[in-house]
Every structure is written in C-alpha cells, then in structure tokens.
Amino acid sequence: MKIYNTLTRRKEEFVPINPGKVGIYVCGPTVYDFIHIGNARPQIIFDTLRRYLEYKGYEVNYVSNFTDVDDKIIKRSIEENIDASAISERFIVECKKDMEDLNVRPANVHPQATKEIPDMIELVKVLIEKGHAYEKNGTVYFRTRSFPEYGKLSHKNIDDLESGHRAEAHQLKVSGEDEKEDPLDFVLWKPKKEGEPFWKSPWSEGRPGWHLECSCMAKKYIGGTIDIHAGGEDLIFPHHENEIAQSEAANGTTFANYWMHNGFLKINGDKMSKSLGNFFTVRDICSKYDPQVFRFFMLTAQYRTPLNFSEELVLDAAKGLERIVNGAEKLKGIVEKDNKKPMTDEENRIISEELPKYVEKFEAAMDDDLNTADAISTIFELIRFTNASTDTESSSDFAKALYDTLFTLADTVLGVHIERKAGEMASDDVAEIEALIAERTAAKKAKDFAAADAIRAKLLDMGIIIEDTREGVKWKKA
C-alpha cells in the first residue's frame, strides 16, 4: 500500500514499525457543540483506512482523542453557567451518537485531555530540563528555535514565519501581554483566568496548551513513534508542526512515520461558516439524508482532494448507493430462494476467474493512497457484472459467493451498509406508488371515481394504505 506522506510530499510504500501491526492516531474534535460535517470527513476517511488495513490482515491500534478543555468549551460553560466538564461530557456523548449513525467504529481508545494532565506536566518538565522550554510568570513556552527541523511538516521557512509574526509580536509586547523570548515560541502551559478550570503544576495553577495534549496521548496509547498520524489539512500548521517539535525534542525519536491529511469540505463551492449561513452539523444533515448516504458521499472523492457538498451531489450519491443496495438485494433474493443445484461450469469459472479481477481492482485503488473514489467505481462495475451474470435460475451458492464479495468490499471495508433496513422500500417501488397516487388524484379531478377506486384497490393489493387529508394524499405500508 502506498500513502501520500505530507512530511515528504510524495507517495511512499507503507511499512509499519512492527510487522502486522499498525498504530494510528487521529486528532478528534473539540467538544463544545454538535460536530459539524467538516469534522466528520476525517472521522469517516480514517475509519475507512482502519477498516482497509484490518481487511489486509493488520492488527490496528486506532486512537482518536477528545479535546475536552479549550477556550470554546469554557466560553459555552460561562454562557450556560455550568461546569466546563458538563459541556464536554454532554457533547462527547452526542459526538459518539453521530459517529455511530455514520458507522464510524469506536476507536480502541478515546483519550480525553483532562484525564491525561499528569503526563502533560511531566512532558513539560522534560522539555524545560533539555532547554527546549522556559517559564515566564506561570506560563511555559516552547523555544521553537531550539528545534532545528521546525517547519518540516508544513514546509514553512522559519525566517518567513518570524517576519509574519513581527507586527503581532510588537503589539503584544507593547501591551504587556507577551513575554516570549521569540515571537515563534508557543504555549505549553498557561495560568488560569478567573472562572476557568485549572490543574496544579510546578509553574502555576492552569491548563495545558492545545498542542501538548496529542503528543502525550499518542505516546501513551501507541508509543514513542507512531505509524500514522492523521487529521484535516487545517491541522498541519501550527498544530501538527508543534506536536512534532515538542515530541521529538522531548523523546529524541521520530514522532510519526507517515502523516495523512484530508482536504477541506466546501459548501456549494464556499468555505463553511456560520456567517455565510452554510454551517451544518452532522445532526442537521442526518435529519435530512440517510447517514449512510452521507458516508457514501464522503467517500466518492479521494480523501486529499477538496470535496464540495451540495444537495445535488448528495442526491447523486443517494442514487449511486441505491444501485448498490438494489444489486445486493437481487443477489440476496437468489440466495434466499435456496436453490441447491450445484454451480454450473460457467458459474464456477466466474467465481474462480472473473470475480477476483474486481477484488484486485478494488484493492489496487485502495492501495493507491486510499483512493475510495476509484474503489467505488469498481463496486459499480461489480454490480453491473453481477446483474448480468445472475437470474432466477442461478444457484444459491453462486449468488452467495457474489454477495459475500460485494458485502466485504462495500460494507466491511468502506463501511457503507448495503442491506436495506427493515421496512425500507426501494426507490423504484416508492416511485411507482407515488405515480399511482398521482394517477388517482387526476382521476378524481376528472370525476372518474371508478378509476380512482380501482387504483386505491391496486395500492391495497401492493400493501399500501392511502389517506386523503387537507395536506394531500398520505400513504403508509399496511
């Protein structure tokens, strides 16, 4: 498998530290509200990476944190006049519900920043001892220039970064708000403000800087060097850059061998923002569309490319997923007929010669930097092939072999459910029902009541009960 490594800016053959085992750390959300659909993209993408690596036989240790102490959490706690921990715990629960709806499997560990404070304090002590950090009036800063490789992930030049910070640094120094030795130095520990949660440390009663959290949790739950560190591309700088600096300065080892970052999610071509009125939570979207359609939509583009969210594109994804579900339903129907006749020579040939070609093509796409877009195209090809290769006379064993392969690729690996929910109807059936209702409405308008009654009877035979209301005709399954 080849992975595009943000660190080297090229695709590299993936070689884990320990054969057969993979450690993945994915930066999770800050839990101060319902997660938005931009948060969902890395969760879906890297859940799919995990699934594919497990499909390939790896034992995966998948760690994804919750940032549960942050300015935004504190701000909301003040607004609601409750403890900050009550805010974070509430939205951790809600986030887990959203992830379950999107079929994102729970991580092996979901560490929370507030439960790892002692380890963070120890890491800061090590950095101070090694000369990489210093304390000023209760605040501890990382001495950025003490780490010569700073900028290697974001490919930023440290001198260019400094010039960009000069005006800001001058303003802060004039106002007395900044005591940094260098404008590029960043906070490892900060003193509490009135009304904020805090922890005791050798420097002050306060809390850790944001970047510190992931360094500690990745090391504790995976190891000093992790195989893959992942997240959205907005985290490359400064968050992931600072993680590397403080981790490698403290530990003296490479922090992560591979860095994977997904592209931004846009809304109708624009950046998502509350000010533009195009800000959507996962909860908003899943109330309007099937969560599985949303997951499928997220996988229709290769993860590094920007993805544009629009109603038209989501409806296209819904149609695409419906084709896969219909294909799976057809195969399952043949399996359930339990036709016990032995497979024909042609059916045996298809299983041994043709079916593996689709599996190989799917794997080739996924091995090429997790190209889910091409993998989905292969699944569509497989659906066309299974539709053409089966009919009511096909043996159940043949249909089962086809179905099992389709299920493994689409459901197990991509994480998209291909079995219709109990009571859920195919879109073609819904379209037929609605067409009959429209025909009945037209017949009533033309005062052809016999025709209208005949259509009602036909719908009843199909198991559909209709009711005339002020809002129009409503229908339900009997």
Key terms:
single chain, 4-stranded parallel β-sheet, alpha/beta, 478 residues
Question: Which helices and strands occur, and which strands form pairs?
Answer:
Elements: E1 2-5, E2 10-13, E3 21-26, H1 37-55, E4 59-64, H2 71-80, H3 84-101, H4 117-129, E5 133-136, E6 139-142, H5 158-175, E7 186-191, E8 206-208, H6 210-221, E9 226-232, H7 236-251, E10 256-262, E11 265-267, E12 270-271, H8 282-288, H9 291-298, E13 307-309, H10 311-336, H11 345-367, H12 372-389, H13 396-413, H14 427-445, H15 449-461, E14 464-469, E15 472-477
Parallel strand pairs: 3-4, 3-9, 9-10, 11-13
Antiparallel strand pairs: 1-2, 5-6, 6-7, 7-8, 11-12, 14-15
Helix pairs in contact: 2-3, 4-6, 6-7, 9-10, 10-12, 10-13, 11-12, 11-13, 12-13, 14-15
Number of contiguous helices: 15
Percentage beta strand = 5-15%
Helix content: 40-55%
Low-confidence parts: 167-176
Mean pLDDT: 92
For the largest sheet, list the strands in their spatial order: 4-3-9-10
So what's the oligomer here? single chain
Number of strands: 15
Specify the structural class. alpha/beta
**SSE pattern:** EEEHEHHHEEHEEHEHEEEHHEHHHHHHEE
Q: Give the C-alpha Rg.
A: 28 Å
Q: What characteristic shape results from the CA principal axes?
A: globular
Distance between the termini: 51 Å
Main sheet makeup = 4 strands, parallel
